[in-house]
Each structure stands twice: as structure tokens, then as C-alpha cells.
Write a structure and sequence with these properties.
The complex is a heterodimer of chains A (264) and B (259).
Chain A lengths: L1 H17 L3 H29 L1 E2 L2 E2 H21 L1 H4 L2 H5 L3 H5 L5 H6 L8 H20 L5 H13 L2 H17 L6 H11 L9 H7 L10 H7 L7 H27 L6
Antiparallel strand pairs in A: 1-2
Helix pairs in contact in A: 3-8, 3-9, 3-10, 10-11, 10-14, 13-14
Chain B lengths: L1 H15 L2 H28 L7 H18 L8 H7 L1 H7 L4 H32 L9 H25 L7 H14 L12 H9 L7 H7 L9 H28 L2
Helix pairs in contact in B: 1-6, 2-3, 2-6, 3-6, 6-7, 7-8, 7-10, 7-11
Classes of the chains: A mainly alpha (264), B mainly alpha (259).
Chain lengths: 264, 259
């Protein structure tokens, strides 16, 4: 709880710093919005033309898409420095985190808070809302399901967070990890916007094991929409998220112990 | 003449130093390509895609994923904003070389590097995954070369314009991000332009982004003939004129105000 309060303070301070540059904030909000809209354009083009993908209709895919963007948007908002972590190793700035009397990760997460990224979560939320209200009207989902979906979307942020933590930790050994992110983050999260069944077998395995984006949305959604799976998948998704981040954090601690400064 | 070639060669050698990092990045591009291919194939299997069947769409995605590295993924403003910031630009403009040509040829070294270390490995992986489309009509080959050359040149000119904007604003980074987004969305990279929802397809058709992906891909897959070079040709000429006009203005600004 203490850690949470500390995080709140750090985040509030960085938010104040960021708001000193209002124009920059407005422009980056606008551009990030464009990026997410462009992403949606591909989905719209596919769904308007073909009506369904791998047996999922536009609202069912919208459900996956919304959950995925909420998870990604929340992660990008609340852990921006983790995303650019290799800089700390390259320039030896990690030393500055080690001297503080609290966990390094906490300091890192409280820095450079990026409120404009929340726009992605909002956009995902709108798509999710439209999809869910259609699916509720059609009698596919009930109120309890909807509550679960909202909660799962938020908890789903643990998966991109865990992926990012793993990738960032690799920097302790290989220094530059920015080039790995398309593989470990962007591509898997993009993949999670569509039903897992459209991918070849090896990719399905990859996306539900070491790059476990299927747990953000596909695994619970599949069950809720009556497309297979068991009731356990509703428990499995958040449980996996927590376990994944726990393991990632253990890896981080290992990396931290391995760290030696650039010496400058 | 040789000075321009020398600049390109230097850029090529500089890039060689980062081969390992680029290979790691290729892994991401590869996965991205395979994901998009799988999505489109699943979609096209389910309904009517006009001239684009599942296999054609797979080739479309693969071709464009590979084209990204020579036409679209270019550094912020081709390095001009950084040169403006440090003042190095005044030395570059002092040289007895054409500035527009200097910057473009320097970047061509990187493009040439990308062709061998990004495009080629990716093309090999995609060829193994979905096979290679071999154009049947021999006339397609020269057209395709023209289409690709125009795409590279247009991509470079657009990035040059982003760079030259740094003479008037310190925030060219926004122009860069905006250009990148437009180059992905309205170029036919992810979606053939005619499959885009209504207002977007008409707008995208006439903008200078379609020549980067849509036109060369249509030529390669023999969905269009020589007419697909009209817009690219028009935009190559138009962008050249704009680039040269703005270069002259930037040079004058530098000479009068001292940067």
C-alpha cells in the first residue's frame, strides 16, 4: 500500500512536469489518436468487406479489439519508462535508480507518466462498448459477463506489462532491447486483436505461451461467446496475468543483481 | 558525381556496424508479416474479395512488408533536423554540391543496405511461408523496377520535406510521426486502397502515399499495368519541385539570418 502511495506521488509529479508543455501534450494526443484510428481502419476494412474472420463476426472481433487496446493503452500510460528502459543501461542512468531507498522498478514506473496514451484505452473502450451492447441485445452476453469483460480488460494490462518487463530486463545482458520490441510487444499485441484460430499452429502456441497475449482477451472471450473452452478459462486469464508478472519481476531482480555500471 | 556515390557508400558502411541489431528487428517484421498474412487469408476465405483472393492478399502483405524497408522506414527527416539543431547544416550547405541531391544520395546508401539486410532476408522467409508470385507477362518486370524506384524516391522526398521543415520549426518530430502514420494508413500497405471504407479509398487514391505501396504492389501482382505508374510519376515530379523550392528558401533563410 505504501508502494502504491509512493507511485501515486511520483506519477503526479511527472504529470505536472509534462503539463508544462501543453502544446506538446495536445499534439501527441492527436498523433497517438491517429495511430490507433489507423489501426482500426484495417479492422474496419476487413470486417465491412468480409463480415467475419475465422468464424467471428464484427462485434465478436470488436470485443477482442477493445480488450486488447484497453490493456495496451493502460500499460503504455502507466509504465512508459519501462518501454524505453534500455536508455538507462546505455547511458548508465540505472545507477541513479539504485541509490533510492525503494525498489528500482517503482521509481521507473513513476517517471514520465504519459497521459495521452490513455486515449488508446478510451478508443478501445468505445469499440468495446459498441460491441458489447450489440452482443447483449443479441442475448449472447448477460450483465455478469459484461462486468467480467470490463474487469478482465483492465487486468489484461498485466500481460503487456509482463512482456515489457521481460524485454526490459534483457537489457541487463544485451544492452539494447529497442529492436526486440516489435517481436516481443507490438506484433503479439496486434495479433491479439483477431481470433487466435486464424493463425498457423506454431504461432498459436507462441501467442499462448511465451508471448501470452491470448490471455488478454481470446481465452476468456472464447468461452463467454460460446465458442469453446471451459469455465476455468475465466479464472485462468487473470491468474496467468498475475503469475506472468510475478515471474517477470523475479527475472528483473535477477537482472538487477547482474547489473554493473558503465563506470563513467 | 562521385561525391554523391561516396556519401552513399559511407552510409552503407555505417549501417553495416549494426547488423546484429537489425537482424533482431527483422524477427519482429517477420512475425508482423506472418500475422497480417494469416488475418487476411482467414478473412478472404470467408467472403468475396473481388480481385483479391486469399493467396493474392498474402502476396500483397508480404510484398509491402518487404517494401517498407526501402521506401518508408527512413530516419527522422533524413538527419536534417539534427544537422539544423547542431548547426552542421551550414557546413553541409557550403559544400559545392546540390543539397537536395546530397541528402538523398546519402540516404540511398542506407536504402541499399536495407535492400540486402532487411528486404532480402524478409523476402526469403515470406517466400518459404507462402511461395513467390512470378509475374507472367515479361513487360511487368521493367514496370515493377520503375514502380519500386519511384516508390523509393517519393518516400525519400517526403522524408526530405519533413527534414526541411526543421528550418522553420523545432517540432519537426510531429511532422515525422504524422507522415509515418499517413504512409502506413493511406498507402495501401495493410489494405489494398480499393478495399478501404468509402471516403478513405477515394482520398487515398490521389494522395502521394499510394505510390509507396499500392501502385508497385498492383504492378507486381499484375492487377494493373503501366497506368499504375501515372500517379507515381506525377508525384515524383511534383515532390521534386516542392523539395527544390523549399531548399532554395531554406538556403536563403540560412544565408540571411545565419541559421
Amino acid at each position: 500500500m505504501n508502494a502504491l502511495r509512493l507511485y501515486g506521488r511520483l506519477a503526479a509529479a511527472s504529470l505536472r512536469a509534462r503539463m508544462q508543455y501543453k502544446m506538446d501534450f495536445l499534439m501527441s494526443t492527436f498523433l497517438y489518436g491517429m495511430l490507433t484510428v489507423s489501426d482500426f481502419l484495417m479492422l474496419a476494412a476487413i470486417m465491412l468487406r468480409f463480415r467475419e474472420v475465422g468464424g467471428w463476426n464484427i462485434y465478436e472481433v470488436g470485443l477482442l479489439y477493445g480488450m486488447s487496446w484497453i490493456a495496451m493503452g493502460l500499460y503504455r500510460t502507466f509504465a512508459p519508462e519501462l518501454h524505453n528502459f534500455d536508455r538507462y543501461i546505455v547511458y548508465g542512468e540505472f545507477d541513479g535508480l539504485l541509490v533510492r531507498p525503494w525498489p528500482t522498478l517503482l521509481t521507473l514506473l513513476g517517471r514520465n507518466f504519459e497521459p495521452h496514451r490513455l486515449g488508446a484505452a478510451v478508443q478501445g473502450g468505445i469499440i468495446l462498448w459498441i460491441s458489447v451492447s450489440h452482443l447483449t441485445q443479441a442475448g449472447v452476453l448477460d450483465g455478469l459477463d459484461v462486468a467480467y469483460i470490463v474487469a478482465a480488460s483492465i487486468v489484461g494490462a498485466l500481460i503487456p506489462f509482463g512482456l515489457s518487463l521481460f524485454t526490459a530486463t534483457l537489457a541487463f545482458w544485451v544492452v539494447r532491447t529497442g529492436e526486440l520490441q516489435p517481436f516481443t510487444m507490438y506484433a503479439p499485441v496486434t495479433a491479439s486483436q483477431y481470433p487466435l484460430t486464424v493463425y498457423p499452429r506454431w504461432l498459436r502456441l507462441l501467442l499462448s505461451s511465451i508471448l501470452p497475449v491470448a490471455f488478454i482477451n481470446y481465452i476468456p472471450a472464447q468461452y463467454l461467446l460460446g465458442k469453446g473452452g471451459s469455465v476455468w478459462s475465466l479464472v485462468a486469464a487473470p491468474a496467468f496475468g498475475v503469475a506472468f508478472v510475478t515471474v517477470a519481476y523475479a527475472f528483473w531482480r535477477l537482472g538487477e543483481r547482474h547489473y554493473h555500471s558503465t563506470g563513467s | 558525381m562521385s561525391a554523391y556515390v561516396l556519401l552513399a557508400r559511407k552510409a552503407f558502411r555505417r549501417n553495416l556496424q549494426y547488423r546484429a541489431a537489425h537482424m533482431a528487428n527483422n524477427l519482429g517484421s517477420m512475425i508482423f508479416g506472418l500475422i497480417y498474412i494469416a488475418i487476411w487469408q482467414a478473412a478472404a476465405r470467408g467472403g468475396d474479395a473481388g480481385p483479391y483472393d486469399a493467396q493474392t492478399l498474402a502476396w500483397w502483405v508480404a510484398f509491402n512488408q518487404v517494401m517498407l524497408w526501402v521506401a518508408v522506414f527512413l530516419p527522422h527527416g533524413l538527419g536534417i533536423p539534427e544537422a539544423v539543431r547542431t548547426g552542421a547544416v551550414s557546413l553541409e550547405m557550403l559544400r559545392p554540391l546540390d543539397y537536395h541531391l546530397l541528402v538523398i544520395s546519402r540516404e540511398l546508401g542506407t536504402v541499399w543496405y536495407n535492400l540486402w539486410f532487411r528486404t532480402l532476408p524478409l523476402a526469403l522467409v515470406f517466400a518459404l511461408a507462402i511461395g513467390v508470385y512470378v509475374p507472367q507477362n515479361p513487360a511487368t518486370y521493367p514496370l515493377l523496377v520503375c514502380g519500386i524506384v519511384l516508390a523509393v524516391y517519393i518516400g525519400l522526398c517526403q522524408q526530405y520535406l519533413v527534414g526541411i521543415s526543421a528550418f522553420w520549426t523545432v517540432e519537426s518530430r510531429w511532422a515525422w510521426q504524422l507522415t509515418n502514420t499517413l504512409q502506413i494508413v493511406l498507402s495501401g500497405f495493410m489494405v489494398p486502397i480499393d478495399l478501404l471504407p468509402a471516403p478513405f479509398n477515394h482520398v487515398a487514391r490521389v494522395l502521394p502515399f499510394a505510390p509507396l505501396h499500392h501502385d508497385p504492389a498492383s504492378i507486381y501482382l499484375e492487377l494493373a499495368g503501366a497506368e499504375a505508374l501515372l500517379w507515381p510519376f506525377f508525384w515524383a515530379v511534383a515532390l521534386t519541385l516542392i523539395c527544390r523550392y523549399l531548399t532554395a528558401k531554406a538556403r536563403r533563410k540560412l544565408e540571411v539570418q545565419g541559421g
